[in-house]
Amino acid sequence: MNGMIDFHTHAFPDALADRAVQVLLEEGRRMYDVNAYLDGKVSSLIASMDRSGIEKSIICSIATKPSQFGPIFKWSEQIMSDRIIPFPSLHPDAADAEDQVRKVRDRGFRGVKFHPYYQDFSIDEERLFPVYRRLEQEGLIVVMHTGFDLAFERVRKAAPARIVHVLDRFPDLKLVTTHMGSWEDWDEVEKHMMGRNIYMEVSFSLDCMDRETARNIILNHPKEHVLFGSDSPWADQAQAISLLKSLGLGEERERLILRDNALKLLSSV
Domain tally for the chain? Predict the structure, then answer.
């Protein structure tokens, strides 16, 4: 299948990529055997896409402090293309976060990325509600790291119950939950999220969970709300596609997950 869309990748400006990948590997390896399959540069991601039959990739940036919004925004403008779809990052502590949402929308970006661990918040804190409301009003996509994170202690900042709380409050928020809904908290995904009107992408999960749990979540979730993601460079894109196909989900679901659902969601912005 050609023309696939990877809804979760990372890359960095060329001058920063080597150091960024090294630091993130060191952090992740404190608790988990994580590897980098690319050098963190956009050119390497595009080469991987070419090898894997991937047409488009969403690059998810993370602003670890409010002052990083501007540089990330500028770099995102520079790399945006038909194949690379950057999602800049808002920081919840930014005094002008709502204005940043407007700026993201006006420039034509499709969405933004949040990471509760690197940005130190729980996703259902009321201080984020004005930003969620503005994102909902603007129709932007929100890619949210959900579940635990391999580089941090296991505090439930982005657990399934919190996800449901946010979407009960903001039912039209286009929220994409990463890592099969909640990384390494999949019992709670089955309990709280499975079958609900919640987007999930499958990155960095299929090789961390048993096959039957993965099939159960995907096959019992709305088929239009599952997306493919790899989390490149922390996973190999071609291998991530093979893992998905090994689940035996059937041609229709594979097509929806690997392309059609992402196209529909992106075109809604």
Answer: 1
d(CA 214, CA 253): 13
Instruction: Give the pLDDT of residue 26.
Output: 87
What does the DSSP 8-state code read for residue 116?
A: T
Beta strand pairing call for 174-177 and 141-144: parallel
Are 262 and 7 contacting, i.e. CB atoms less than 8 angstroms apart? yes
223-255: b or e for each residue (b if 16 or more CB lie within 10 Å)?
bebbbbbbbbbbbbbbebbebbeebebeeebbe
**Other CB atoms within 10 Å distance of the CB of residue 46:** 17
Q: What is the pLDDT of residues 109-129, one digit of tens each?
A: 999 999 999 999 999 999 999
Looking up residue 75, the CATH number of its domain turns out to be 3.20.20.140
| Containing structural domain, residue 67 | 4-267
pLDDT of res. 1: 46
Query: Computed over its alpha carbons, how large is the radius of gyration of the chain?
Result: 17
Nearest of 246, 232, 203 to residue 52 by alpha carbon? 232
Half-sphere exposure in the Cβ direction for 101 (13 Å, CA): 20
Q: 243, 250, 248, 213: which is closest to 228 by C-alpha?
A: 243
Helix (H) or strand (E) holding 140: none
CB 268 within 8 A of CB 174: yes
Q: By C-alpha distance, which of 100, 46, 40 is closest to 73?
A: 100
pLDDT tens-place string over residues 182-213: 999 999 999 999 999 899 999 999 999 999 99
